[in-house]
Amino acid sequence: MSLITPPLALYVHFPWCVRKCPYCDFNSYALRAPLPEDRYVRALIEDLSQQARALVTRPLASVFLGGGTPSLFSPFAVERVLSAARATFGFDPDIEVTLEANPGAIERGRFREYREAGVNRVSLGAQSFDARLLRSLGRIHSPAETRRAAEELHAADIPNFNLDLMYALPEQDVRGAVADVEQAIGLEPAHISHYQLTLEAGTVFAASPPQLPSDEVAADMLAACEQRLAAAGFERYETSAYARAGRLARHNCNYWSFGDYLGVGAGAHGKRTEAGHGRVIRTVHAREPRRYLAAPADVVSRVVEPRDLPFEFMLNALRLAGGFEPRLFVARTGLRWSAVEPTLERLKDRGLMTRTDTHWKPTPLGARFLNELLLEFLPESPATGTSHLSTVDRQAASDGPARLLYTGYDGATGK
């Protein structure tokens, strides 16, 4: 393989929340004791230093502080982590630094302090502006707190912020979903992540499912909300992401273009390209915070087999509304274009993919059945001619491909 080293991002996972939401399957834990802020920050810095030894030194293009609820940590703690990252790797001159924040867990005036610490983008977990629905989702904030947080972001000179919104909520109708989008637009964010509530295994909602809208109603919600977002100047550039001109999330775009990212913190995932060795490495930390704090430098690494690279690349790139160029596939996987071209041509003949002069992307039909489309890129076992992945793995891909690595949440890789 002949790999080209892509840009490098940093994901930092903060695993604690005030309360665990019943729909959340992220690696997060309700805070039942004093926050071990200093100890955890020291562990993150040790983790950074240890992982840097395995990397070709290159500046960070973006940083995402995710969780959990990173805004439970003080601006001083955030500054310590960012200073260590800058000293270890260096920052691009126009680096994007995002902090996830819960509107119900942010002290008044804190956003200005986070900005002074180095944060220049914030992702607010609004989810809905209907107080009844927020209660059903187990959220600790109110619609008023989301509005106040947005006002404070503008006052702190952080206009580049994202609002997370969910749709197809319990007993929600199309009018309610559009009303949430309308209220979000009114707060003048730069970016909106808009994703459907799904019942994930291992969550409270999975064990005791709420009454959700039908698939047909959910599709109507998505169509109506997307139309309203487009009218307000928000371009859909990824399956669940909408942005104003010039405000695409660079950190997210790095994921979807199969770029590299260093993952530090409890349960954090990472990916790095070792061009000199012609291989792609996946990394993951221990999920449980106590285990991570005991050994922050312990990272489990695995080499991605060449036969798995087409699926892993497509799992990301096919989420992009604009598609991808063949040369990106070759540069990021080190494989020949012929490794995927026959499959893409078959999918084109079936009306699931389309090709322009420069790009490949799913058709509207392909986007609707993206899970099934992605299964076409699963590798086959040489002995049997079937996928070498287990039945469970195939079912996971079929049920929701984004769940293998990411979800619709803005910037999240802390699964």
Question: How would you describe this protein?
Answer:
- Helix content is 36%, strand content 20%.
- The protein has 415 residues and is α/β, with parallel strands linked by helices.
- The longest helix has 17 residues, at 215-231.
- The chain is globular and about 55 Å long.
- It starts with 7 loop residues before the first strand and ends in a 16-residue tail after the last helix.
- It has two domains: 8-255, Alpha-Beta Barrel (TIM Barrel), CATH 3.20.20.70; 306-400, Arc Repressor Mutant, subunit A (Orthogonal Bundle), CATH 1.10.10.
Number of helices: 16
Provide the structure class: alpha/beta
Helix proportion: 25-40%
As for the number of domains, it is 2
Shape: globular
Query: Could you describe the largest sheet, including whether it forms a barrel?
Result: 9 strands, mixed
The CATH homologous superfamily of the largest domain corresponds to: Aldolase class I
Q: In percent, how much strand structure appears in the residues?
A: 15-25%
Low-confidence stretches: 381-408
Give the end-to-end Cα distance, rounded to a whole number of Å.
29 Å
In order across it, which strands form the biggest sheet?
A: 9-10-8-7-6-5-4-1-11
Mind telling me the CATH class of the largest domain? Answer: Alpha Beta
Question: Mean pLDDT, nearest integer?
Answer: 90
Assign the CATH topology of the largest domain: TIM Barrel
Number of strands: 16
| CATH architecture heading of the largest domain | Alpha-Beta Barrel
**Radius of gyration over alpha carbons?**
21 Å
